[in-house]
Amino acid sequence: MTYPPLALTLGDPAGIGPELTVSAWETLRLSEHCFFWLGDPALLNNVIPTEIISTPLEARRVFPHALPVLPLLCTVPVVPGQPNAQNAQTIISSIQQATQLTLSQDASGVVTNPIAKHILAESGFPHPGHTEFLAELCSAPGHEIMMLASPELRVVPVTIHVSLQTAITTLTTQRIVDVARITHHALIRDFGIQSPRLAIAGLNPHAGEAGLMGHEEQTIITPAINILRAQGINAQGPYPPDTMFSATARTRYDAAICMYHDQGLIPLKTLDMAQGVNITLGLPIVRTSPDHGTAFDIARALDHSPRAADARSLIAAIRTASTMVQHRKENAV
Amino acid sequence: MTYPPLALTLGDPAGIGPELTVSAWETLRLSEHCFFWLGDPALLNNVIPTEIISTPLEARRVFPHALPVLPLLCTVPVVPGQPNAQNAQTIISSIQQATQLTLSQDASGVVTNPIAKHILAESGFPHPGHTEFLAELCSAPGHEIMMLASPELRVVPVTIHVSLQTAITTLTTQRIVDVARITHHALIRDFGIQSPRLAIAGLNPHAGEAGLMGHEEQTIITPAINILRAQGINAQGPYPPDTMFSATARTRYDAAICMYHDQGLIPLKTLDMAQGVNITLGLPIVRTSPDHGTAFDIARALDHSPRAADARSLIAAIRTASTMVQHRKENAV
């Protein structure tokens, strides 16, 4: 059984997105993980065969011998390493079209190439990043949550891009319950895990050591765990944050619910910088992205010399999205 | 050139300390890493040869064929797994004597077996833990700082056993400068690193992203880095906490100065739970300990069946202390 292809966005054309796209197609073209690119074919400098498509339906036929491209032309010429806000609209259109095609089921999921928020902000883009923009496009603002996944670990931070102080003061029982519930259901539907095991982190050193080093475990986190368990969700904790990511501890859960950004991202990136995938849960669509930025410092015009940018994270993002789509369809049957 | 032996403390006799001590002697007895034990020989049940010594001077002669023991008898019989506050004074005496013997240069450093703070607290012990007690015994209260070291990473948290909220509100430029300076000098004197490279972590996600997610990088941390550099210390940062512990990033520094407990301990324990060593810097004496607790749940009476407790962290602590002593003596010449 085949599914519609994945939609891969342009990302910032002055970053490494075009190079990553080429590498991903080279690696995946003979696999089942079919995608098409919403981008400007001129950026690829003919280093791989491309074929313009007019509808995602054509992608699977094209994919083994050429990168299927749904063309979106840049407004001004692209200089690698030098982002230009005049191309912001093309970047944004790529995200919009990928999302629309997925909502209409012409594509089966969205994989986004990296963008630079400050470049889009210059052109009036009001969203902190991809994730919030996608949530709005899906009419689900505020429902989005971020999972980071690598071969060894899945983490879901309860708070994301706020100061550590704000992370502490905005932590609530309700937010933990919401994030854990969405994660639980996503592990079943999108990851094929029938009985997900969630590990809930503490906030403080040693998970507060019975209140000696902070009270949030007692007042906020344990009440959330109790609510989750009463709903039949296998949530354990709160665990001391420093020991819960060891090799042994990691085998005991399917995802760690983390109280702040770095509590989840430090162990993930310490273990594996190359293959981390950013997954947005809580939206009606499947969406993944590589776990890194535009890397303007190493971006360069494509030619036939060996690729310099490490495409493993984008490739992992495409494979993960494809697998999620497959699980979701199987679970829907 | 040989140095005085290391003094290994009793720790809580109802924990795994006695078993770890036996394993450490078995592993190290033919090495240069000589130690004697300040404990109760009855606890060892004759599973290894022991020899009572009356002074540390005898330890090096004894060490290859028997564990040298400076005897300290428990007050009440020890039941493995069931700590008893009536033995607290023996536990405390062991730490006191080890420290005194090191201050008098009869021993070259202190390695502590794990204690249970709540058991000592029951008997009126007023210190939060070993480290603070040792600082007082050395007449250096408040000067102690904690380094955690594994084969892959050294971390020094600026704040330790306080809530995350307190860690944020008590963070000061002066404290970062003090901790980084002590670390810098210890890396030279005790670790033999001529030109130490310090990586200073940010506090907030993405190191605050120019103030968008927190201001402490701008108001507290960067000023500390500037002061350190003006003093000739190679301090770089503030680095985004999630990426600074990756395999590549770790090669670029000798120690990471971390803003709170879990920022340093999460990456260290994620990489290596077995061989982490806790090192107290800022004291006149060398002191290390294993990076785990008493493990009352797996403690048992010693017999000739295979050892169950993992002694790698204690063995690493002894080796580390021994190497620190050697560097310190060489640097003092």
Automatic annotation (TrEMBL), chains A, B:
It catalyses: 4-(phosphooxy)-L-threonine + NAD(+) = 3-amino-2-oxopropyl phosphate + CO2 + NADH. InterPro entries: PdxA, PdxA_fam. Its main location: cytoplasm. Its EC number is 1.1.1.262. Pathway: Cofactor biosynthesis; pyridoxine 5'-phosphate biosynthesis; pyridoxine 5'-phosphate from D-erythrose 4-phosphate: step 4/5. Its cofactor is Zn(2+); Mg(2+); Co(2+). It is found in: Cytoplasm. Keywords: Cobalt, Cytoplasm, Magnesium, Metal-binding, NAD, NADP, Oxidoreductase, Pyridoxine biosynthesis, Zinc. Homodimer. HAMAP family: PdxA (MF_00536). Catalyzes the NAD(P)-dependent oxidation of 4-(phosphooxy)-L-threonine (HTP) into 2-amino-3-oxo-4-(phosphooxy)butyric acid which spontaneously decarboxylates to form 3-amino-2-oxopropyl phosphate (AHAP). Belongs to the PdxA family. This is 4-hydroxythreonine-4-phosphate dehydrogenase.
